[in-house]
Sequence to fold (192 residues):
Amino acid sequence: MGIEENKKLRKIKIIFILQVILVILPINVALMAGGYYLFEKEQERIKYMGYTEYDLNKQKMDYLIAVYDIYIPEYKNAPMTFFTDNMYNPDKDKYKFVKGESCEEQIEKINSLLFNDNDGRYECTRESVLKYGFNENNPITSDWVMKHPYDALNMLMVLPADEPGVYDAVAEYDRYGIEFFWSEYASVFSYD
Fold:
């Protein structure tokens, strides 16, 4: 083999390598761009995914704490950093509810107000609760609330309307957070 043939073979190899690079490079760029797009889409989905299997947002979880004392332990222990720490946690739908110390007492107070209150102040709420099948003989239970958090909150949404100043309390709660809400308006939801 002569020098000319080596140069010719070398030239053919270089051209082949350049052609391969020119074909593979755009495919690589397209795959990377597609992968980045899918990654961003998945991150966006996770970011707006709710907590627990019931897909609850912060407001719903806060109302569950305020009304029923049912919560996610990790959230109650670190409410200020919980959402930033878990914003991109793909397992945030695996969190589980627990009952707080006053859960049964709160639910007992709600049942008492709804079914033993004879002055008619909670008639609208009583009608709402009856639609879910609850009555004097079948009271609301903490187990039911834990399995049906949306329904548990929806059926009592009429309840605050009966109590003066609660709309202001909820607005303050949304603005300042759960600690302020409890310190300023605990009596609203304590039903004493």
User: Anything to note?
Assistant: The radius of gyration is 29 Å. Confidence is low (pLDDT under 50) at residues 159-192.
